[in-house]
């Protein structure tokens, strides 16, 4: 996943850490009438600060993006919680949830079985088209079926790693050559310089990254749901989710209920349109329910 610069991480992390508490912490919220107080449970979501435009920082150093705004809207509808977001390194999202330091993972997560054994995946809140990024004029990669024998880079715990490791098991005679890295954020440069032959991710995110990097001479090759499904079955046709510890099913259920209300009244579509040129990347309710059937193995 995309990492932001260390100084920004340290600055923001310091701000959020000052208010961080372990799972189960509470704060008092004074009522206006009678001076009595109610307790709100503190919920801390963790993110690495990317990938844009789903998770990013604005010019003032404030977290923003589609995933952030959707999650904020969900908690706006859950007044029993005091919600905040903390930036951390990508692997620390998982260890932090395991330790109870964080209650929600917010990093445009795709589904894989190993994560599914350990975490609750909330309602699917996004499905955006995917593509391959290659140099213009690349005559060897013209579609997803041409990736065998070519090089890309992956984070070992990422959706991409799961995808291409599965692909390689199916194509041992001509596997994708995987370079495991801690930070895939340099992929536009790496494709441009020929360090890797292609990169795979959501189209809108890669276009944003390429634009921000100011790199020319690259092209996008669309990848369909059917092509992904042919590699890994229905699991690889899923979109994106927030993560919650399996120790806290009540929180996951409340997140889903609030999300579905925001989906039904059009709020999620409005947030999507803000980031994706009027396009709604939120799945319909029937697709949300189908995604749960797939992740539950039904």
Give an account of the 3D structure.
The protein is α/β, with parallel strands linked by helices. The protein folds into two domains: 179 residues, 3-Layer(aba) Sandwich (D-Maltodextrin-Binding Protein, domain 2), CATH 3.40.190.10; 108 residues, Periplasmic binding protein-like II (D-Maltodextrin-Binding Protein, domain 2, 3-Layer(aba) Sandwich), CATH 3.40.190. 37% of the residues lie in helices and 22% in strands. It contains eleven helices and 13 strands. Strands 1, 2, 5, 6, 7 and 13 form a six-stranded mixed beta sheet that branches. A three-stranded antiparallel beta sheet has the order 11-8-12. Strands 3-4 form a two-stranded antiparallel ribbon. Helix 2 packs across helix 9 and helix 2 packs antiparallel against helix 10. The protein is globular and about 65 Å long.
């Amino acid at each position: 996943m995309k990492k932001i610069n260390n100084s920004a991480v340290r600055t923001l992390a310091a701000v959020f850490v000052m208010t961080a508490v372990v799972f189960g912490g509470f704060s008092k919220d004074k009522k206006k009438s009678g001076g009595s107080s109610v307790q709100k449970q503190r919920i801390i979501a963790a993110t690495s600060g990317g990938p844009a435009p789903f998770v990013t920082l604005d010019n003032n150093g404030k977290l923003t993006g589609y995933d952030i705004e959707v999650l904020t809207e969900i908690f706006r509808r859950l007044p029993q919680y005091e919600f905040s977001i903390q930036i951390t390194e990508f692997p620390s999202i998982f260890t932090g949830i395991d330790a109870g330091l964080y209650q929600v993972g917010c990093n445009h997560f795709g589904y894989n079985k190993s994560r599914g054994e350990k975490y609750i995946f909330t309602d699917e809140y996004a499905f955006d088209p995917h593509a391959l990024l290659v140099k213009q004029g690349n005559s060897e990669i013209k579609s997803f079926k041409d990736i065998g024998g070519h090089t890309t880079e992956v984070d070992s715990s990422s959706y991409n790693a799961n995808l291409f490791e599965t692909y390689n098991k199916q194509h041992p005679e001509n596997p994708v050559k995987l370079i495991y890295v801690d930070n895939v954020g340099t992929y536009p440069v790496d494709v441009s310089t020929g360090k890797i032959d292609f990169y795979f991710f959501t189209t809108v995110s890669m276009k944003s990254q390429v634009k921000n990097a100011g790199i020319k001479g690259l092209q996008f090759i669309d990848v369909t749901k059917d092509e992904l499904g042919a590699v890994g079955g229905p699991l690889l046709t899923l979109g994106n989710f927030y993560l919650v510890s399996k120790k806290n099913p009540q929180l996951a259920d409340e997140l889903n209920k609030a999300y579905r209300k925001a989906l039904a009244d059009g709020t999620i579509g409005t947030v999507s349109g803000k980031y994706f040129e009027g396009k709604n990347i939120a799945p319909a309710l029937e697709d949300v329910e189908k995604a749960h059937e797939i992740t539950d193995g039904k």
